[in-house]
Amino acid sequence: MAKSPAKSRAFPTLALETVLIQRVAGPVCGVDEAGRGPWAGPVSAAAVILNADDLPAGIDDSKALTAARREALEIEIKARAVAWGVGFASVEEIHELNILHATGLAMCRAIEQLAVRPVAALVDGNYRFKLPCEIQTVVGGDGLSLSIAAASILAKTARDRLMIELDGRYPGYGFASHKGYNAPAHQAALKVLGPCPAHRRGWSPIKALLEEA
């Protein structure tokens, strides 16, 4: 019996942007974050208003792209978008506010960096962050909306670069490779070195190590 052909994955489009732009009669940005789950480093967010007449080819969910492809697209997006912005919330702000509110803060900072003020934003996920414009949440948005996918790329590349910088500041943890996420090498380094200032001290594994010290 012949196998059914594999179902091809849909790629992001500007369909959601087009509908929202018609409704709000103004610029619409896509917003996404990177780094909500790691044990170390800040959370980042990006906002992008794309030019529908000058789209870089190959924009997709950052998780579906190689690091080299993300970096190449980052350059193109920044060069050809109507506007783009990147924001961060520090490990201290994550500890003070919690990761959800810190993510919203990073998103606000990203939108504030835009050279063109958006009337509305398409935001990946289902949480309605308090942002300085109208928002429409989109579950799985980085795979549906080109603007959100572009934002996911900028948020990811910006955070990755920062984690590489932190690797130089706090050597031995492997931040340049695992970017602060839970990984065997990260766990092994923590057992030997203990947490450093880049670690999220409110995270259970890090909190436990600090209490043992």
TrEMBL record:
It holds the Pfam family RNase_HII. NCBIfam families: PRK00015.1-3 (NF000595). Its main location: cytoplasm. CDD domains: RNase_HII_bacteria_HII_like. The lineage of its organism: Bacteria, Pseudomonadati, Pseudomonadota, Alphaproteobacteria, Caulobacterales. This is Ribonuclease HII. The gene is rnhB. InterPro entries: RNase_HII, RNase_HII/HIII, RNase_HII/HIII_dom, RNaseH-like_sf, RNaseH_sf. It comes from the Bacteria. Endonuclease that specifically degrades the RNA of RNA-DNA hybrids. It comes from Brevundimonas albigilva.
